[in-house]
Amino acid sequence: MPKRGAFIVIEGLDRSGKSTQAAALLRRLQDAQVSAKLIKFPDRTTPIGKMIDAYLRSESELDDRAIHLLFSANRWELASSIEATLRSGETIICDRYAFSGLAFSASKVRPGSQSYPLLDYDWCRTPDAGLPAPDLTLFLDVSTDAAKARGGYGEERYEREDVQRRVRDVFVRIGDQVEAGGGRWEVVDADESEEAVRDVIWDAAKDLVKGVDAPIEKLWD
Ligand code: 2DT
Ligand code: MG
């Protein structure tokens, strides 16, 4: 049987260099004649994605559970196309995925509280269960200081230091859970230079991108 493509997810906080690194990995794969494509969540181009975009730009208000489910639905819209692409032998690099969905929602706190969760962690995890699972997740871990030195956060919802700190804590928990379930979760020190991070990512991905024999796993199975 021919090998399928690898499903590689890049996760991290804002200003961690995810998009830059995802693009760099794609170029490197293309240079190596590996068939690959880059996708990104949220995919703001679909009808659901447009609702997400308006929410992130604070042009609309949505119930916290409703927006969580929309982010998940935005992945489910593309789930079968992700599987088809992988089966065709093409590798996918994915800029954010269900782990962002879980980290950003489960890190929300009740109004007036700094630590009391608004949504239950397992409730947040459930809607994404069954999506194609990544073969490798690279978590780009950036410190608050480095993020600031990179020009700081933007104008969108969640682009605030207190939010980012809480999101990071949930990402650490998620990484432990992915590994406990047999998945591959690599923490990459994203305070390092762009070139250094690029090399670490290549080292982690280079065997996988030769193709994968194992079937596509389901997330949180
Ligand atoms: P970008 O800046 O990468 O476009 O992300 N987010 C993302 C969620 O809250 N839930 C999700 O499921 C996903 C994929 C992270 C926009 C923001 O959306 C957040 C940052
Ligand atoms: Mg952003």
From TrEMBL:
<dbReference type="GO" id="GO:0005524">
    <property type="term" value="F:ATP binding"/>
</dbReference>
<keyword id="KW-0545">Nucleotide biosynthesis</keyword>
<dbReference type="Pfam" id="PF02223">
    <property type="entry name" value="Thymidylate_kin"/>
</dbReference>
<dbReference type="GO" id="GO:0004798">
    <property type="term" value="F:dTMP kinase activity"/>
</dbReference>
<dbReference type="InterPro" id="IPR018095">
    <property type="entry name" value="Thymidylate_kin_CS"/>
</dbReference>
<dbReference type="GO" id="GO:0006227">
    <property type="term" value="P:dUDP biosynthetic process"/>
</dbReference>
<dbReference type="GO" id="GO:0006233">
    <property type="term" value="P:dTDP biosynthetic process"/>
</dbReference>
<dbReference type="GO" id="GO:0005829">
    <property type="term" value="C:cytosol"/>
</dbReference>
<dbReference type="InterPro" id="IPR018094">
    <property type="entry name" value="Thymidylate_kinase"/>
</dbReference>
<dbReference type="GO" id="GO:0004550">
    <property type="term" value="F:nucleoside diphosphate kinase activity"/>
</dbReference>
<dbReference type="InterPro" id="IPR027417">
    <property type="entry name" value="P-loop_NTPase"/>
</dbReference>
<dbReference type="InterPro" id="IPR039430">
    <property type="entry name" value="Thymidylate_kin-like_dom"/>
</dbReference>
<keyword id="KW-0067">ATP-binding</keyword>
<dbReference type="GO" id="GO:0005634">
    <property type="term" value="C:nucleus"/>
</dbReference>
<comment type="pathway">
    <text>Pyrimidine metabolism; dTTP biosynthesis.</text>
</comment>
<feature type="domain" description="Thymidylate kinase-like">
    <location>
        <begin position="10"/>
        <end position="200"/>
    </location>
</feature>
<keyword id="KW-0418">Kinase</keyword>
<keyword id="KW-0547">Nucleotide-binding</keyword>
<keyword id="KW-0808">Transferase</keyword>
<dbReference type="GO" id="GO:0006235">
    <property type="term" value="P:dTTP biosynthetic process"/>
</dbReference>
<comment type="similarity">
    <text>Belongs to the thymidylate kinase family.</text>
</comment>
<protein>
    <recommendedName>
        <fullName>Thymidylate kinase</fullName>
        <ecNumber>2.7.4.9</ecNumber>
    </recommendedName>
</protein>
